[in-house]
Amino acid sequence: MERLIERIIVVSRWAMVPFYLGLIVALFTLLASFLRELYAAVTNAMSYSEHQAIVKALSLVDLTLMAGLVVIVIFSGYENIVSRIDPAGPRRWPAWLTTVDFGGLKKKLFASMAAISGVTMLKALMALEETVSERQLFWLVVINLVFLLGYLLMAVADWFAARAREMKDPPDA
After folding, report:
1. Residue 10's closest CA among 65, 82, 61?
2. In the chain, what is the straight-line distance between the N-terminal and C-terminal CA atoms, in Å?
3. Other beta carbons less than 10 A from residue 28's beta carbon
4. Do 65 and 147 form a contact (C-beta atoms < 8 A)?
5. Alpha helices, DSSP H, located in 12-133
6. Which of 70, 100, 107, 170 could be stapled to 76 by a disulfide with Cβ–Cβ 3.0 to 4.6 Å?
């Protein structure tokens, strides 16, 4: 009975595949948004003020960071949960493709979220006179600081874990 339960648990990881396929659809949705924003930026470039051009560029950066985050989650999640991806396959895979474990994924996710939050805050600062209230800006700053604090705490925890491993297994002198 125990072996059957273990087999069911191991096979159940394949239930994650539709989630990753859904994220691929989301990636193409982001691509469509990016192309729409890019088209608007290019076709209206001559009428934009410097301020508007910066906000448009920040929107493109924001979409790019979000798309990169989705790609990282797709590859790392599939590789770590569902099945190993053969790096010696017929294509030239990116070097990081099969080396991002959950610890690395956690760091990349926090860094990406902090960057996205920072870009969003910068866009809000740029639109402060037009549409963003001081209260909204306050919460954007708080959210960004929470992401940065979380990333810092995670880095400190990783540093302590590495130190503990070194103390347990010191390198040969």
Report:
1. 82
2. 50
3. 11
4. no
5. 17-43, 50-77, 102-126
6. 100
Per the CB < 8 A criterion, the answer to whether 62 and 120 are in contact is yes
In this prediction the pTM is 0.68
Q: Which of 172, 44, 62, 46 is nearest to 124 (CA)?
A: 62
Domain residues of the chain, as ranges?
2-168
Given CA atoms 113, 116, 121, 122 in this order, what sign does their dihedral have? positive
| Side-chain half-sphere CA neighbours of 151 within 13 A | 18
- Specify the 3-state DSSP secondary structure of 136: helix
What would the pLDDT profile of 119-168 be if each residue is shown by its tens digit? 777 777 766 666 767 787 788 788 878 878 887 887 788 788 778 777 77
Residues 6+ apart with CB under 8 A from 35: none
Other beta carbons within 10 angstroms of residue 104's beta carbon come to 14
Q: Are 147 and 121 in contact (CB under 8 A)?
A: no
150 vs 161: CA distance, rounded Å: 16
Residue 146 Cα distances to 62, 138, 152, angstroms: 19, 12, 10
